[in-house]
Structures are given as C-alpha cells and as structure tokens.
Amino acid sequence: MMHMTLYWGKDVTLLVDSWKTDSWLSYLLTLLACFIFASFYQYMEDRRLRFGSLASSNPSPPSYGGAAAVPLLPNYRNSAKFATALLFGINSALGYLLMLAIMSFNGGVFLAIVLGLAVGYLLFRSADDEKVAAAENVCACA
C-alpha cells in the first residue's frame, strides 16, 4: 500500500516497482543515489544557465552592405540556444523525477533530496547569485 503521509523507515518503493529497499544497506544506497541525483540536477541547471548566457551574449552576425550575412552553417548562437533548450528538457525530466521520488513520502528520501539540492546549489550555483537572479527558480521541477 502506498503511504499518503510522511513516514520513516527503511522499506520504500522509489519511482518503479523494481526499486524497493528491504535492508538498511539498500535504503542507505537509495538515499545516497537520491542525494547525488539532486546534486546533479543543480549541476545541470548551472550548465543550462551558462549556455543560456552564451546564447544571449553572443553578438549577431556582421552585416555587409546593409544586409545581414546568412551563414551556410548554423552559427554558435543557434547551437547555444539548441543546447539550452535540450538542457531545459533534461532538467525538467530530472526535476519531475525528483518530485516523484519525494512523493514516496519517505522522510529519509525527502531529506536526502533536499540536502542534495542544497549541497549542489552550494557547489555549483552559489557563485552565480548576482548574475542569474532573474532566471532563478526555487522549484526543483521547473
């Protein structure tokens, strides 16, 4: 039966039926995986924001005789925009998976993910506070 309130214990089913913990070792490894996964989310979010700043700061192509030059190959700015969109999709998927893991209602999983997000933010994104304040989103699933 699925829990609908926060509970504490080593028996948890996470994301799929085959990911069940039945011992303290498997539970601690699951918590470690949640922590690493949440920290990785912050790393990927940092990468996405950096690609986004590359896409917006890259100068436009030079113009010749009043008309803009149209390159035969996509320029670096379009590649950065594509990478930003791809990373946004990956980050959205990671964020929703983290949210679904928290919805297991296990207290240890909740704490592991929140601590992983906080440590990942400290390691990868705390230096960008003043640069990307407008792009900041506190929700792990967006």
UniProtKB/TrEMBL annotation:
**UniProt key word Nuclease:** no
Q: Which GO terms describe its molecular function?
A: copper ion transmembrane transporter activity
**Transmembrane segments annotated in the record for this chain:** 24-44, 82-102, 108-124
Q: How does it sit in the membrane?
A: Multi-pass membrane protein
User: What InterPro entries would the database entry show?
Assistant: Cop_transporter (IPR007274)
Q: Where does the UniProt annotation locate this protein?
A: Membrane
UniProt keyword annotations, A-Z: Copper, Copper transport, Ion transport, Membrane, Transmembrane, Transmembrane helix, Transport
- What are the boundaries of the signal sequence? none
What is a single cellular component term in the Gene Ontology annotation? plasma membrane
Q: Does the keyword Ion transport apply?
A: yes
Entry superkingdom: Eukaryota
Q: Which family does it belong to?
A: Belongs to the copper transporter (Ctr) (TC 1.A.56) family. SLC31A subfamily.
User: Could you tell me what this protein is called?
Assistant: Copper transport protein
What species is given as this protein's source? Hibiscus trionum (Flower of an hour)
Upper lineage ranks?
A: Eukaryota, Viridiplantae, Streptophyta, Embryophyta, Tracheophyta
